[in-house]
Design goal:
43% helix; 11 helices
Length: 266
Amino acid sequence: MAEDDNEEALHQPHDKLFVQGFSDPANAAGLLKTMFSEELATQIDWEGLELQNGSFIDSQFRKSQTDLLFATTLAGGSCRLHVIFEHQSSPDRLMALRLLRYQVRIWEAFDKEHAGEPLPVILSVVLAQNGSRWEVPTRLKNLLKVPPELEEALLPYIPDFAFQLLQLAEVPYRALPGTPAGILVLRVMKAERLNQLLDDAVWDEALLEQTPEQLFEFILRYVLAADIDKEGFESRLSELQNPQLRTNAMSLAQVYRQEGRREGRV
């Protein structure tokens, strides 16, 4: 990872961890295929997932939110999977309205590049790094004041869609889905909110051993930059059973500490 990237990562650690982990299409697919019904998931070309350039987030939310957009096909037709990572402390009741704005931007960008072609289906997923459960409407029409007796008559005239919401606060560590690397990232995100970054769930060697080196390095930086017991962190590293993993982790930790001292962070 470049030096500039490291500096930026420490400014926005949550967003950068999300991007480091899930910009890999395999990790994204491992998570996303569990978010939809079997009928829908089996029609999505997960092997063909391609990360797209750009962000569609409102500028005022960029300190608490980031996104990844993937292109693929759904039953042979064009499809976009939009993953929004949310780490604000409180829920947004109008989340569905925000996602509608993002969808319009995605369609407008698509139309500029593919003028005249049918617009792709967009499936939106929100990953919430929350410490407690959120109560938010996950359908756009539930934000509207629709007279019950006219709901059926009005349906053709009002916009509506649903989005999938994965709340880390709701899912036990052992039930978090995905690839080994993707699961580890989700566990680290969950643990950070609960002040449990030194717990066994984060230091699961079966997952650590299958995590790419660059992502493993970033996770160590993320943990070390958090408000943790530094002696407890050292103990965790020394307790790793895999000799190569332990040696690499302890060497990296030493480098990060030296960097931190020079920058006045440690």
